[in-house]
Design goal:
The complex is a heterodimer. By secondary structure, chain A is an alpha+beta fold. Helix content of chain A is about 50%, strand content about 20%. Helices cover about 30% and strands about 25% of the residues of chain B. In chain B, strands 6-7-8-3-9-10 form a 6-stranded mixed beta sheet. In chain B, strands 2-1-4-5 form a 4-stranded antiparallel beta sheet, with helices on one face. The chains are: A alpha+beta, B alpha/beta. The complex binds adenosine-5'-diphosphate (ADP) and magnesium ion.
Chain lengths: ~375, ~230
């Protein structure tokens, strides 16, 4: 006869309510981890999309994401000529805010050269950009449809295709357009500013600047040797894809990781305290029953088993509910929540340990209960 | 009534018990000696605080005496200190308790409240169930086997508790005001039942009571006053 189970069954409503409360807490812990994973994933989406081996940026900078980087537009041709480089493409990146149906829309514009690396991937609807001007591929996260026109600055862009899951490290959905369009968007001045410049006698500034050049090298050449080659140009810096990813994880994600890590740790401590308190009160509520059990001759292991089993059952059910909850609502989060089975397992392990440690408090109490206290009133 | 040549089931010599020390010292029992033989039903009478519960607790190995000597069913269990390590096992096998308030486990039904002690003693589940059923029927609460304690009347609960106390065929039955929660008619039924058990199973019954109507159910009555036993025949 399993006493832990019988006791739970007898107070099922209360037990389930407790488990439900715990599941909300554990759900939050799990979503924190998922949010962090999503953050890392999102941050790397943009940098992985061009399938580059090398990033060429302005000398002395860690561009184009961690720092601003500006290099001449013709850099791509110089890079493409280096031995071992199979393809290269110039790229522009900028955050843009616009309005659509009266709503503010934040997006991250990626400009690339047609026929060169850097274009959109994961196109789930429509087609890629086919013309050099005024076409764009947007991410589903932006909420626009194919065929729709989107007004950016003074230019209207026709959305010809949609990608899925393409976001910048800040979580803003990506909008791909040709380099020329994005340069115009970046450098065009308002009409009044242009008139003022003209009046000053200045020529319209050179807009042929890009933020980075991505390059792919042939498989039999180490990217590092090409990186060394590029560094001979005094105005350029270069880093391999691995370096770029590490940089991004460190500079962009590291603070978020510490923040979320700390928060997760705090939540875990809170969960542990709460579980310990619940187990303690569950034991307190059973003092008389435990005294009776001791009196009729139940050994300590029966009583310890009862406390531990209930505590673990609570943890398992609470975690199960919590995981189920988050799996079902994760897509409604404003940012991506990535739930990895190994994270779930790790948390389950931690919760199990927490439950066992927490039951120690209850067990201590249970063992101290004097069987004589069951006698009399 | 029953004078048997057998050796006593309960034997206490010069048992004393005090709680606390110095200013707060309470002498609950002073130099108590007692012998109870198989088949005997002993009544304990006395005002509140006189030491009756303490005496039962010492015999039931729930409370350790301060000094003296005690033997239960042939085993010396106390000689100025515990002489046995597994007191709970001893309790499980040899002692049945009936409390003033029934003390049934609220999360088990009547049947399980009885079979749990058999289960703890290692009796296989089906045999435990069968024996529990028999005991409940014997105590005329067989029809309440699936009811939980909260749904039992005072008398029914007390009879389930008695069934539990008897489940492992203990030779020593300790009852602390077993009839206090019952009306006198039911109290008499319960006492007669304990009598019957003592005779049929060769057990010793030691019961605390205030109920004058059941005095004639006892073979002997001891009065407890200030922690001392006074015989009255
Ligand atoms: N655990 C205890 N700690 C201190 N004093 C106690 C304890 N149990 C009983 N006593 C004291 O011992 C005396 C005898 O108590 P008890 O055996 O319960 O008497 P009765 O059952 O006859 O009412 C009382 O004075 C009581 O206050
Ligand atoms: Mg008492």
């Amino acid at each position: 006869m399993n006493l832990a189970y019988r006791d739970i069954k007898h107070n099922l409503g209360r037990f389930l309510l407790t488990c439900f409360g715990l599941s909300l807490l554990l759900g939050v812990v799990l979503s924190m981890i998922g949010i962090y994973r999503g953050l890392v994933d999102d941050a790397l989406t943009l940098v992985r999309a061009p399938n580059a081996d090398i990033w060429v940026v302005e000398t002395g900078t860690l561009g184009p994401f961690a720092e601003a980087s500006r290099i001449p537009g013709n850099t791509r041709e110089d890079i493409a000529r280096i031995a071992g480089v199979t393809a290269a493409g110039a790229m522009n990146f900028q955050s843009v805010q616009t309005q659509r149906h009266g709503q503010e829309l934040r997006l991250y514009v990626v400009g690339y050269e047609l026929g060169h690396p850097g274009g959109p991937i994961n196109i789930v609807e429509g087609r890629n950009i086919g013309r050099d001007r005024y076409e764009a591929v947007a991410d589903l996260g932006l909420g626009v449809k194919t065929g729709e026109t989107l007004q950016l600055g003074r230019t209207a862009f026709k959305i010809v295709g949609l990608t899925e899951g393409m976001v910048a490290s800040g979580g803003d959905p990506l909008l791909y357009m040709t380099l020329r369009d994005s340069q115009q968007l970046q450098f065009e001045l308002s009409p009044s500013a242009v008139r003022k410049e003209r009046a000053r006698g200045a020529r319209p500034g050179s807009a042929d600047t890009v933020n980075a050049v991505v390059a792919q090298v042939s498989a039999n050449i180490a990217p590092e040797t090409v990186v060394q080659d590029i560094k001979r140009w005094k105005h350029l810096a270069a880093m391999s894809q691995v370096e770029q990813e590490t940089l991004l994880t460190q500079s962009v994600v590291d603070r978020a990781r510490k923040q979320i890590g700390l928060f997760t740790a705090i939540l875990l401590v809170v969960s542990a305290v709460i579980i310990a308190l619940i187990v303690y009160t569950m034991t307190m509520d059973k003092i008389r029953e435990i005294a009776t059990l001791k009196l009729i001759g139940a050994p300590d292991r029966t009583i310890i088993g009862m406390v531990i089993q209930q505590s673990v059952a609570m943890g398992v059910i609470g975690f199960g509910f919590g995981a189920l909850l988050i799996v079902n609502i994760k897509d409604y989060f404003p940012r991506r929540v990535v739930l990895q089975p190994e994270d779930g397992l790790a948390l389950a392990g931690v919760i199990l340990i927490v439950c066992l440690l927490s039951s120690a408090l209850g067990v201590r109490l249970a063992l101290k209960i004097d069987p004589a206290s069951a006698m009399g009133g | 009534m029953t004078t048997t040549p057998q050796s006593p089931l309960i034997e206490l010599k010069h048992i004393s018990k005090h709680y606390g020390e110095g200013e707060t010292r309470v002498d609950a029992l002073r130099d108590v000696s007692l012998e109870v033989y198989p088949g005997q039903v002993i009544g304990l009478l006395g005002p509140s605080g006189s030491g009756k519960t303490t005496l039962l607790n010492i015999i039931g190995c729930i409370v350790e005496a301060s000094s003296g000597w005690a033997k239960l069913d042939g085993d010396v269990i106390y000689d100025n200190a515990w002489m046995k390590s597994d007191l709970r096992r001893l309790r499980l096998d040899k002692v049945g308790f009936i409390f003033q308030f029934h003390n049934l486990l609220p999360f088990l039904n009547s049947m399980e409240n009885v079979s749990v002690v058999l289960d703890l003693a290692g009796v296989p589940a089906d045999r435990a169930k069968q024996r529990a059923q028999e005991l409940l029927e014997y105590l005329e609460v067989g029809h309440r086997r699936d009811a939980y304690p909260a749904h039992l009347s005072g008398g029914e609960a007390q009879r389930v508790a008695i069934a539990r106390a008897l489940a492992n065929n203990p030779r020593i039955i300790l009852a602390d005001e077993p009839t206090a929660a019952l009306d006198s008619e039911r109290a008499l039924i319960v006492m007669k039942l304990l009598r019957k058990l003592a005779v049929e199973q060769d057990a010793a019954v030691l019961a605390v009571t205030h109920d004058e109507k059941i005095y004639d159910q006892f073979d002997r009555i001891f009065h407890v006053r200030d922690g001392q036993l006074v015989t009255e025949d």
